């Protein structure tokens, strides 16, 4: 039996005393991050927010096995928010849709959640009306059964069976009424409950996990009291993906005491906030770099590589690697690098000859 089949669904209960300490840690960390960001300059706030939103979009899709181009996502977010992020990259249709969904959830967090708004999100998520090779119902509730299964054909293992389609309108109306009016529950706990409740209803043919995480992000923005996002819950869930699916399945098969799910969510959120410390450090480093070189002009390839060098570039940079990563000839790559050497952005590492490599000065 799944939790939505119980007579008193969705009357969730939890052990508030058991959660009190963890909730206190999360709230303290939340206040610390917001305080740190307020003390930083506007440009550094923008850079940190851009990084967090980019990770949220990319990692939420990655959890479901959908790989998005990070440069396209970053460029799309920057353009929509009016952030100067250097050389822009044209984004594909599916990227624009996911970005549109996430920004509506986080930037318009104070607006009510209604069916038409969710239908718009869903349509943005599946602009072609297909999920992979399969045609799905887009921008409307599913009209068939829904199961989460794994395993080879004929030997499938059923992890979850969602409510029957006929119940979805009433189930979602109850969810909307609670989400738009409930004020007694701590706002962070409400994000965790909203995530679980929505993914239990599973109202769409596909995309329910991404929609649930967007709703949780929307509620976390309400908890923060700001549209500025400085940490990425989805990036942390991706790191803890196996545990995420395990706790969801275990909770679905349990009673309506969701203490374990709330505890896991708080731990994951705290870890996401901890990782923001490193993000803030990188943002400060990037901010200083662009401030020093604010008068320099860079082409699109140089912008791309500089962003990579300032983020998570592994190994040594040489001409051939530049050519491959920017999809240009080695002659063009050499000219790009020589230009950065001349501008004092790069310096040559000690080893020369065929192993010549470069680093940020």
A few lines on this structure:
By secondary structure, the chain is mainly alpha-helical. It contains 14 helices and six strands.
Explained architecture:
Helices cover 60% and strands 5% of the residues. Helix 2 crosses helix 9 and helix 13 packs across helix 14. The chain is mainly α and 361 residues long. Strand 3 and strand 4 form a beta hairpin. It is globular. The N and C termini lie far apart (61 Å). It folds into 2 domains: 285 residues, Fido-like domain (Fic-like fold), CATH 1.10.3290.10; 63 residues, Arc Repressor Mutant, subunit A (Orthogonal Bundle). It is built from 14 helices and 6 strands. The longest helix has 34 residues.
CATH architecture of the largest domain: Orthogonal Bundle
Summarize the main sheet.
2 strands, antiparallel
Name of the level-1 CATH class of the largest domain: Mainly Alpha
**Termini distance?**
61 Å
Q: Please provide the count of β strands.
A: 6
Shape label: globular
User: Strand portion, in percent?
Assistant: 5-15%
Q: For this structure, what is the CATH homologous superfamily of the largest domain?
A: Fido-like domain
Query: Structural class of the helix and strand makeup?
Result: mainly alpha
Helix content: 55-70%
Give the number of helices: 14
> Which topology of the largest domain does CATH recognise?
Fic-like fold
> How many domain regions?
2
């Amino acid at each position: 039996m799944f939790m939505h089949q119980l007579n008193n669904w969705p009357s969730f209960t939890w052990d508030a005393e058991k959660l009190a300490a963890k909730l206190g840690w999360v709230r303290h960390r939340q206040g610390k991050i917001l305080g740190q960001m307020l003390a930083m300059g506007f440009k550094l706030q923008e850079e940190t927010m851009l990084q967090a939103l980019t990770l949220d979009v990319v990692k939420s899709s990655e959890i479901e096995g959908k790989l998005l181009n990070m440069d396209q996502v970053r460029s799309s977010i920057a353009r929509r928010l009016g952030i100067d992020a250097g050389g822009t990259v044209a984004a594909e249709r599916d990227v624009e849709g996911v970005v549109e969904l996430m920004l509506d959830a986080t930037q318009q967090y104070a607006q009510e959640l209604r069916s038409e708004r969710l239908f718009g999100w869903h349509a943005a998520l599946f602009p072609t009306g297909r999920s992979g090779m399969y045609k799905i119902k887009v921008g409307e509730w599913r009209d068939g059964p829904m199961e989460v299964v794994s395993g080879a054909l004929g030997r499938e293992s059923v992890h979850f069976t969602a409510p029957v389609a006929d119940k979805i309108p009433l189930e979602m109306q109850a969810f909307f009424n609670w989400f738009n009016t409930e004020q007694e529950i701590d706002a962070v706990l409400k994000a965790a409950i909203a995530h679980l409740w929505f993914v239990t209803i599973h109202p769409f043919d596909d995309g329910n996990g991404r929609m649930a995480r967007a709703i949780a992000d929307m509620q976390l923005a309400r908890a923060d009291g700001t549209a500025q996002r400085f940490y990425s819950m989805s990036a942390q869930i991706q790191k803890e993906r196996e545990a995420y699916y395990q706790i969801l399945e275990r909770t679905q098969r349990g009673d309506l005491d969701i203490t374990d799910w709330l505890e896991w969510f708080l731990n994951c959120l705290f870890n996401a906030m901890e990782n923001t410390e490193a993000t803030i450090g990188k943002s400060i480093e990037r901010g200083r770099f662009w401030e020093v070189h604010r008068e320099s002009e860079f082409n699109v390839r140089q912008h791309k590589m500089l962003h990579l060098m300032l983020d998570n570039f592994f190994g040594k940079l040489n001409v051939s690697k530049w050519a491959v990563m920017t999809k240009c000839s080695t002659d063009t790559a050499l000219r790009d690098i020589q230009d950065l050497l001349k501008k004092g952005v790069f310096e040559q590492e000690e080893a020369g000859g065929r192993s010549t490599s470069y680093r940020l000065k």
